[in-house]
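Can't paste images in this forum, so I'm doing it all in text. The chain is below; anyone willing to post the predicted C-alpha cells underneath?
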Amino acid sequence: MVSFYSDIYEPLCKKKGIAPTAAVIEMGFSRGTAANWKTRESTPSGPALRRIAEFFGLTVGDLLAGVTEAKTEEQPAPKEDELSAEQAALIAWCRTLSPDEAAAALATLIAIRRSQPRPGPPG
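Text version of the structure:
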C-alpha cells in the first residue's frame, strides 16, 4: 500500500530542499501534521491535498500519482466525443463527488493502477 508520507510527501520535500516539518508549518498546518502522516494516524483531506499540491507546484492528481515535478507541457485532454462509454460514465460519476470523496477515489484508482503490471516494450 502506498504511504502518503514516505512515497509522496517526503520525496517532494527532499527535492525541494525543505524538512517535512518545516514544509507543513510553511503550508499552515500544525507542527505535528507531518508526524501524523508518517505514522498513518491521518492522511490529508481534499482541501489539504490542494494546499500541498499548490506548495509543490503540482496538481492534486500529480501529487497523488507521486509526480515529483510540475509538467512543463500539458497533454490535451480527450474531447467528450473521444471517450469510451466507461470513461464518460466515470467522469459523470466523479462530478457527483465532494472534493474529499474525489481525492479518496483518485487515491484508490492510483493504487489500483500501480498494483497492476505494466506491459513491456514489444519485442
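Helices lie at 4-16, 20-26, 33-38, 46-56, 60-65, 85-94, 99-115. The CA atoms of residues 3 and 40 lie 8 Å apart.
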